[in-house]
Each structure stands twice: as structure tokens, then as C-alpha cells.
Specification:
Structural class: alpha+beta
Largest sheet: 6 strands, mixed
Strand order of the largest sheet: 1-2-3-4-5-6
Number of domains: 1
Shape: globular
Strand content: 15-25%
Number of helices: 4
Length: 138
């Protein structure tokens, strides 16, 4: 079941991932501005059961190293102390594929994104672009 609040959609993650749900942005607003709404929706989905939630911030952060975050829903609220960025190779391929399918099916959301025209076209064509990685300066 999908939950939509105007700023995001919550989609149940496939069983082959470590996440229970994925929150996709539907606007360039950051989801953490809507924590109480997200927590309410997560309670409707999981009740008191804990869950691991993936946030895809593509529309607000673009294809940058801080695009994906994960946090734990403790059965009552999002535990923001557990909020952390997803690092390279951590479920990377499956996350990117899921995200690509979601945004290809909901291409209209990309109009309000931080993506370039070229990146939006890549998603429409089903081309998955990899994580960008920050270069470490010496």
C-alpha cells in the first residue's frame, strides 16, 4: 500500500532489501519538515512494529552523496538519532533500480526537482545513474 501526503509517497520495499519502506519525495521539500505527518503515516502502516525506512532525497538534493538516508521507526516515532546517510555499495544497485522505476512511473514529480534536464531524460529512459562520490582533497 502506498501513502501519499503531497510532499512524499511511502512505498513498501521489496522483501529482498534491508528496508521496510521507502519514502520518495514528490516535491523539492525535505521530508524532515513533515516528520509528524510521516510518523502518523508510518503508524498507520506498521502500528507499534519497528521498521527501517529509506529516504530518497533525489528531488531536493539531486544525485549527490547525501541523496539517500535511512532511519528507524521505533513503533511510535522516527528515531532521528538513527538517521544516517547510505554509503556506497550499501544496497546501492537495488536502491537505484527501485528509485529509477518509481520516478519513471511518476515522471511528473521530476518537474519540481534539483535534477538537470539531462538527468530527468536519463530517468525517463530507464538509465540508472550511479551515486556521486565526493572527492577527498589532500
Amino acid at each position: 500500500m502506498d501513502y501519499v501526503k503531497g510532499l512524499y509517497e511511502i512505498v513498501k520495499a521489496p522483501d529482498n532489501t534491508v528496508f521496510d519502506s521507502i519514502i520518495y519525495l514528490t516535491s523539492s521539500c525535505k521530508p524532515f519538515e513533515s516528520v509528524s505527518c510521516i510518523q502518523s503515516d508510518l503508524y498507520q502502516i506498521y502500528g507499534n512494529k519497528p521498521a527501517v525506512i529509506l529516504f530518497d532525497l533525489l528531488l531536493s538534493n539531486g544525485n549527490e552523496p547525501d541523496r539517500f538516508y535511512k532511519a528507524t521507526y521505533d513503533g511510535e516515532k522516527l528515531d532521528l538519532k538513527t538517521l544516517e546517510s547510505i554509503q556506497k555499495d550499501e544496497e546501492e544497485e537495488s536502491i537505484l533500480s527501485l528509485s529509477s522505476v518509481f520516478y519513471r512511473m511518476n515522471f511528473h514529480y521530476l518537474d519540481a526537482s534539483a535534477l538537470t534536464f539531462k538527468q530527468r531524460k536519463m530517468i525517463l529512459k530507464g538509465i540508472v545513474f550511479p551515486f556521486k562520490h565526493k572527492r577527498v582533497s589532500k
